[in-house]
Each structure stands twice: as structure tokens, then as C-alpha cells.
């Protein structure tokens, strides 16, 4: 298996590569192995069918039909109102698109690491990680290797919205602010961006005027609940926003899923803090380096439980179950726990309730559909 291309900062970046991230949040592909059959049902009437949308264990950067397109360590996926998928193709330093006809194209990025604004393939990213779509179709990218937040408008023009190449935790306007390995990002209906500033253990906010502030977290590693900067995180990675304005955070280093209400109050939604794979109610459940979170219209939270190679579900009552994945590191389609993933990272839910997963070490985009049994 190739070593992970993304990684919490350990002081500096090498000139052409980044230090290996022990959390294995996004990584390289490998050949698949089989797993035994099985299934799981999260309700009495449905089973979860897992399929591969695009990509295979062979890594590459080939565009074209989904059957032959290739990716390299995809770390996040987003879906627009029309059903087009956007992929943070992290290992290729690209932003890709899978349209509703099943064709894969490159939206932005030259395919080599760098920090260059410009139109489409003239721009450069360095290990783009999380991203978000606003209601107008603009993409916002957590450009982790460059410690910046980038914007791709609907014409494909890439600009730097906030941050500079120098890691730091300074608040301020636009490029006067600094981040340290920004990972997850989400945009609210008012145009405010929230960023999981992984290396700083913070949740940051960028308002529509480009002003960057600290929304939650003290900066110290910890798992304290509390209001705003009284709370603490440990390598927060994925972010999602529900219809009521609550933020959910994949607090990877703490093995927790956290919730931040609109007033900035931080609580623990699920996870005991211990590493494990136990299902159960709220803090009785355990996770292993959860990296991605998504939420559906009913308020169910989906978690890419990266270290366990599974997708978990936290229902609106706080009950945690395993939605899909056997726990084996492999690329296998099938129902529920008969399917397998390898270090799944980012995920998203479309309007129909389908879950799309950036299956990082498999270099693939997967789909989970709830079907009637």
C-alpha cells in the first residue's frame, strides 16, 4: 500500500512531498481482496447497496467515461443540485467532476503541486482536501498543502480567498489570515464559510467580506466541550452543516463526532474518545479516526470512520450503527457489511438520500443506496 499523501503538519513540508499522516485520512490505492458476505439493515425495510461510481484500485488521472477514469487518493466529494459530483482528487492536485452522463473531466488544477491562481488547468493546488459548493455553484477548496482557502467560480477561475502559504493561526482579512493544514470546509446559506483548521485544532469562520475569525477551539489539543474558544479539538477534519445551522465535526484525533450549535456551543454527539468500532447510543459508541461527516434532510449524520474502513450512521436520536463496510481494507461492492472500503474519507448526501464516499485508498468514488428489502 502506498503511504498516505496527507498528513498533519509535523513542523514543515518537504519540497516535493508531505510527511506521512499517521491517521491515514487519505492515501494510495492497492489491489482489492475479497471479503465474506453479509449485510446490515438500519431500518426494518431497507438495506444499503454499495456500488462503485468511478475509479478503481489502479491510480491515475485519466478523464473520460466512469468505467475507465482514474483517480489518485480522492479525499472529498460534493454534489450539486443537478446531481453532478465534484471530487477533490488529492494525490493528483486536481478538482474533478463526474457529470450526470457518467463522464469525468478536470475542473481545475494542472496536475502538479503548486500555489497558482488562474483559470481551470492553469491553476495549481497542493493536496486539495475538503471542499464545499454554494447555492450559486461556486466551489470552495481547503488547499491543505498550501494552507489556503481557494475559490473556483462558475467560469473556472481560481482565486485565493484566505490564507497564505505560511502556516499559522492569525485571524484577519483574506490573505492576512493564516491556517495550518485546513481540511474540511462548509458554506452556510448566508455565504459564511467554516473551516476545520486541522493543524491548529480550531474551527475558523470566513464571513462574506473575507474576514477570518476563530469560531471554536482553544488551539490546544483536547476534547473539552464548552462555548467557542473554551472548547478544544484534536485534528478536526470533516465538517457539515444541517438545516438548523448546527455544525458537525469529525474530531479525528479524539475519535469523536462533535456538534457546534449556532451560538458556538460545542458538545459531543457520539463517541467515547476511546478507539474502537462499537455501535451504541451516543458516547457509548466508539470510532477510529473519523475523518468525514455528512447529514441528510432528516438529520441523520453519516460518518466516514476512516480507521475502521466503514461508514457509520448517527440517527436523530443519537444511536450509532454501521451502515456499510466489513472493516476489511478492500474494494468490494455489495449490501451493507458485505461491501468493503479502504480508508474512506469525505462523503456527501444527495437530495434523494444517496451517500457518496471518497474511498481514498481504493482511488474510487462509491455510492450507497438504501433499497427496499
From TrEMBL:
Residues 67-214 form the SMP-30/Gluconolactonase/LRE-like region domain. NHL repeats lie at residues 71-101, 113-155, 233-263, 282-317. Residues 1-24 form the signal peptide. Transmembrane segments: none annotated. It comes from the Bacteria. It holds the Pfam family SGL. Keywords: Repeat, Signal. SUPFAM superfamilies: Calcium-dependent phosphotriesterase (SSF63829). PANTHER family: NHL REPEAT-CONTAINING PROTEIN 2. This is SMP-30/Gluconolactonase/LRE-like region domain-containing protein. It comes from Trinickia soli. The lineage of its organism: Bacteria, Pseudomonadati, Pseudomonadota, Betaproteobacteria, Burkholderiales.
Amino acid at each position: 500500500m502506498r503511504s498516505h499523501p496527507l498528513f498533519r503538519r509535523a513542523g514543515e513540508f518537504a519540497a516535493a512531498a508531505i510527511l506521512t499522516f499517521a491517521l491515514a485520512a487519505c492515501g494510495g490505492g492497492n489491489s482489492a481482496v475479497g471479503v465474506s458476505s453479509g449485510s446490515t439493515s438500519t431500518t426494518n425495510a431497507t438495506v444499503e447497496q454499495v456500488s462503485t461510481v468511478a475509479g478503481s484500485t489502479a491510480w491515475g488521472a485519466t478523464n473520460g467515461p466512469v468505467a475507465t477514469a482514474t483517480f489518485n487518493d480522492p479525499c472529498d466529494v460534493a454534489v450539486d443540485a443537478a446531481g453532478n459530483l465534484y471530487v477533490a482528487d488529492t494525490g493528483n492536485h486536481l478538482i474533478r467532476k463526474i457529470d450526470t452522463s457518467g463522464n469525468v473531466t478536470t475542473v481545475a488544477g494542472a496536475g502538479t503541486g503548486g500555489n497558482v491562481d488562474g483559470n481551470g488547468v492553469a491553476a495549481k493546488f497542493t493536496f486539495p482536501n475538503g471542499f464545499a459548493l454554494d447555492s450559486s455553484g461556486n466551489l470552495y477548496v481547503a488547499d491543505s498543502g498550501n494552507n489556503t482557502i481557494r475559490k473556483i467560480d462558475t467560469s473556472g477561475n481560481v482565486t485565493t480567498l484566505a490564507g497564505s502559504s505560511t502556516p499559522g493561526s492569525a485571524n484577519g482579512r483574506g490573505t492576512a489570515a493564516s491556517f495550518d493544514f485546513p481540511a474540511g470546509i462548509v458554506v452556510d446559506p448566508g455565504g459564511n464559510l467554516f473551516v476545520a483548521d486541522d493543524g491548529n485544532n480550531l474551527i475558523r469562520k470566513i464571513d462574506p467580506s473575507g474576514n477570518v475569525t476563530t469560531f471554536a477551539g482553544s488551539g490546544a489539543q483536547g476534547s473539552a466541550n464548552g462555548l467557542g474558544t473554551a472548547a478544544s479539538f484534536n485534528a478536526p477534519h470533516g465538517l457539515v452543516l444541517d438545516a438548523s445551522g448546527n455544525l458537525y465535526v469529525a474530531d479525528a484525533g479524539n475519535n469523536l463526532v462533535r456538534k457546534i450549535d449556532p451560538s458556538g456551543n460545542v458538545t459531543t454527539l457520539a463517541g467515547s474518545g476511546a478507539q474502537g468500532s462499537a455501535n451504541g447510543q451516543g458516547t457509548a459508541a466508539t470510532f477510529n479516526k473519523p475523518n468525514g461527516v455528512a447529514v441528510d434532510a432528516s438529520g441523520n449524520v453519516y460518518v466516514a470512520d476512516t480507521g475502521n474502513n466503514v461508514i457509520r450512521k448517527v440517527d436523530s436520536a443519537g444511536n450509532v450503527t454501521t451502515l456499510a463496510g466489513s472493516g476489511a481494507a478492500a474494494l468490494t461492492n455489495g449490501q451493507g457489511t458485505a461491501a468493503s472500503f479502504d480508508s474512506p474519507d469525505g462523503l456527501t448526501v444527495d437530495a434523494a438520500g444517496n451517500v457518496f464516499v471518497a474511498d481514498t485508498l481504493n482511488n474510487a468514488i462509491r455510492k450507497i443506496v438504501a433499497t427496499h428489502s
